[in-house]
Please model this.
Amino acid sequence: MQAVSLSFFRFDTVPARIWAFAMMGAARFALPKVPGIGFWKLCGSGTGEGFTPVPNTGVYAILATWGDEATAREQVARSDLWNRYRARAIEDWTVFLSPTSARGQWSGAAPFDPDPAAMRPGPLAALTRATVKPHVAVKFWGQVPKISDVIGADPNVIFKIGIGEVPLLHQITFSIWPDTKTMADFARRPGGPHQGAIDAVREGLWFKEELYARFAVTGDMGTWGGASPLRQMEATT
Model:
């Protein structure tokens, strides 16, 4: 069963941030050499509770697919590239995922191999990725901050972040929810900003390429904000 890892790294000093920014280019040569890796992407992040057009120079991410979770855990824990990031980061966290559904493409590929049988009770993650058409970027970014504000205020969301490959034009929203119902309630809230943005996208044909995926959350490694977001959820339920 395919496994997906999404690793986040937080950098505090100026030299560390400069290094992380430079690795957005340099790591492209190292990632294909990591044993067992499939599709991969290097991402920066946005400020705020979700994705915003203002970059956060202190947080970067690596997304990768693997043949199975054992390989994913082995390489994330021991590969030279991930350890180089950890050596300069003040904190890192990786969440491991199993795709349960996916539609659309990412850079012309369908990176996730969903298996509905991977669905299980407990937390699940949602990932939305799109390439925004340049001539509608202003309209698009007028909608997204509204969604970010509402996600941040929702007491049910376990983790949320906006990442992307190219500022303004490539955007990814990633969030983790305790169960299917709470995620669906947010996405389908009548008259809410999420539904409004979806309607605007469909009417205006804002995206050149889009992908929507759902995952079962199978585990994690490291901390974010001083603790594991998944362990924090367990402590409050």
Remarks:
- The beta strands are 3-10, 37-46, 55-66, 91-104, 124-132, 159-164, 170-177, 207-222.
- The chain has a mean pLDDT of 83.
- DSSP finds seven helices and eight strands in the chain.
- The first strand starts at residue 3 and ends at 10.
